[in-house]
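hey team, just a heads up i'm posting the complex here instead of the shared drive bc the drive is being weird again. everything in one block, sequence lines first with there labels, then the predicted structure for the whole assembly after. its two chains so it's a bit long, scroll down
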Amino acid sequence: MVVREHDRLIDRFDPKVMSLLLSLDLKARYLVEGFLHGLHKSPFHGISVEFSEYRDYQPGDDLRHLDWQLYARSNRLCVKKYTQETNVRIYLVIDSSGSMKYRGSDAWGSKLDVAVTVAAALTSMTLKQNDAVGLLTLDEGATGSEFIRPSQKPSQFGLMLGHLQEIRPAGGPRLAELLKHMLRLIHRRSIVLFFSDLLEDAEGIRDTFQQLKFMGHECLIFQVLDRDEIEFPFDRSSVFSDLETGDRRNVDPKAARENYLERFHAFLAEYKELFQSLEMPHCVIRTDQEPWEALSLFLHERQRMM
Amino acid sequence: MSLLFPLMAFGAVAIGIPIWLHLRRRDEKDLVEFSTLRFLDDQPVAKARPLWPHHWPLLLLRIAALLLLVAAFAWPYIEDDEPVIVEESRVYLLDNTLSHQRESGFENARDEIADELAKQDLSKQISVIELSTTAQTLVRFGDDPNQAADTIRELEPSAESGNFVDAFRAASELLNTSLGSERSIILRSDSQSNQWTVSQNAPPFLDADIRVELPEVSVEKLPGVSLSDARSGRFTRNGKSWIQASVTITRQGDPGETEIAFFDGEKEVFRQVVAWNEQQQVDGYAGTVLTEWESDPERWMLGKVVVQAERDALESDNRTYFSLPPVRPGKVELISNSLFLKRALDPTVMMDRWDIRIANIEETVRDKSDLPDVLCVDARMLLTDRVRKKVRDDLSRGCGVMLMVDESNPLIAGFLRDLGIDWQTGERQQTEPKTFRYVFGEHPIFAPFRSSELGNLAEIEFSGYRKLQVRDAVPLAFSASGDPLIFEVAAGAGRMLVFAFSMDRKDSNWPIHPTFIPFLDKTLTYLRGQPTSVASFEPGEAVTWELPPGVDAEQISVESLNPDGSVDSAAKPQLVDINDREARFRAPGKPGNYGIRYGTEPRFDAVLDVNPSPLESELRFEPQPAAVAAWTLPEPENTSEITEEDSAIALTDAEALQQPYWWYLLIAAVAAFVAESVIGAAIGRNQ
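-- predicted structure starts here --
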């Protein structure tokens, strides 16, 4: 079902428009509206509040809940009872390491921009379905973390946007550190939406993901990658400088492409295998394409958990 | 070439900067910041290439620009292999005043300095300052010696006057930027006493180590006669026009037999041997010689007085020039009830000077050929519309207006308000008879009264006047209580003087005072746009020549005149631009009569008399002037010896800037940078 809907949604996303939108709020709205309008049946119907039964009115009950039609028909004062669905806590965890700064020539934003925009869109969607949403990321100096407690208040959206806009890519590999903060701060069973390019050794973080799984958290992994990283389209000999470490290498792309692609896809496969083994949904978001798959994955998993 | 300064070494090190920048920029240009470097291998082949310069012209230009800059800024510290040490800096003060013409003193000094300049070697710096009305630096240190010598040889003796202090100050400033370890000022002058004493009390400014070489003075005083203060005027006797002229003759020492002659143009009109009587045979005696002769009233009188004495040491001051304009009586239209004004302007009083016309206030049309030069009007007459129109019309066509405010009335107040004059109080201020508190003595209507010949204005007492408040006007005289009594108003093309009192006895005793008629004459003359006193200046003196009303010109021409009134074609005319109706220039350096022309017509419009200063005729000389000691600063306590090395590197910024090589290096550096930018931009476009 997800794949079929996704095919129709492609027309509703234009990377150029996305790159021209300056406000994160607008970007998130553009993404959500475009996504929701493309669905035949909204998955949000009926997931918030459902009617359960009547009971007799007692003094002190809220008059708003009186069923006036029933009163007209039967001359009885009855109060409607509702069943509130159990809301879940959703954490957005965003990797802000230096490599997330990369932006290819065809991308509508840097990897961090894309991660933040998708995160903002998901924030909007989760708040609409009365789920509590919070944020975790590392601060710019890499000395501590930025943490927003989950909340389902409407004002949470503004707070989240404010913090998402302030995230700046900096420093070297920070994934392991971020995961440590996750373990320390997230205690109750939650859904963790994890945004990262995962450009670190899978072995180094395997244990942490296993621990998250053990604690009962549902983790959705959104791996943000650029076309340049996936396809390596360079053709001119240049000095390549690492965004995280500052190391430099003289590279002739024509000679290095085959070797690079082989290593990179092996790296992707390793992570895919890891997340499959941990039963963690994983999808790749390309910075030059629409992120519908990520949104669909989230809705799919959310429905599955209900 | 040797390195004398450590910074030179730092400058040389800086040459490496462009190479590093060049390589660095090339390296940065192809840099790709990438995220998945861990999947790429380093390829050693590419590593060596960026280190090799790619654009040689750019690299060479950058190196050249830096080298040139380093050389330019190191220039003051670069010494030749065989350094030339400047041993002496010398400033010559060449006195070019009138008294130095005695016995060809100026010519001898001029030639001596020119010879000295011509044979100047590199161990000596020479500068020359000419002393006349101002001190002018003719030759600076570092000027080409042969060219400087020619400049000095071309100097002509002047008849100007000047004192030494400005020349010494200029010399001191020059020596402050000199290179020589020995500094001296050499005065080539006759060392006239008054040239020293005029500014003897100036505060000290000369450094103690500056040597001052004074001229040798063999005599302290010389005999001589001189002329000054030539005055002249026209008068009518028996229907004929006469000129009365006087001159002051001053003797010094015993000049011997003296003869004086007056000339009207080329014609000698008076000659007399001056017989000095016993009382007059004293040093500095000044007497007046007066004569009169019949003259043509229709032409300019260009006069000259010449004196000759048996033992006169200085002949250059033996003549003085004066002039008188042709008789052109002015026309005054009187619209006043003042009997005193009518009487003062009566033809028997103002013959050949002013033609009075008592205006008919009823007349509506005025004869254009008979328009007045000056309009004298009482304020009460302004009640009539025709009079108000007359005043407006006359002012706009350049006629002068003399307005006596003798009455207050709303209609008059309104008219005066249009001219910028407000009533402060409408009533007449009745006071005890009191004199002027202050008069603007420099103004042409008061300037002739600074000497007592025309009477004393301080004796005039006012008992009543109108209190007026005037915008955009110049108050010229104030009452004892500080209220303006006379002021000049800018109300049109013509000049306008407003008197806050009437010309009647009820307001002041002026109408019966001896100064009344001369003052009226000077006032009307000023309002007519003519000079009220003799236009006599000293050679080189600053002149501010005001254009008379009704004359419009962009330039005036000052030309030397022959005695017959024709223009001296051999002399070059001096053209002066007019700004704000004023021409500012220096009076010609040679005594004589000079014609001033406003337009292109051959006749001249005014005459400027140029006569030497009486100070130049005082032939007293000072062998050891006290002024030099007074001007010298006390010697500093810790004086360090100036070494040879210090002399070589002590090139000041000013001197470095004067060296052409410095500029060549700097310009070449800039050119190299420009070329580098152009080539760099072209390479960038191609890539």
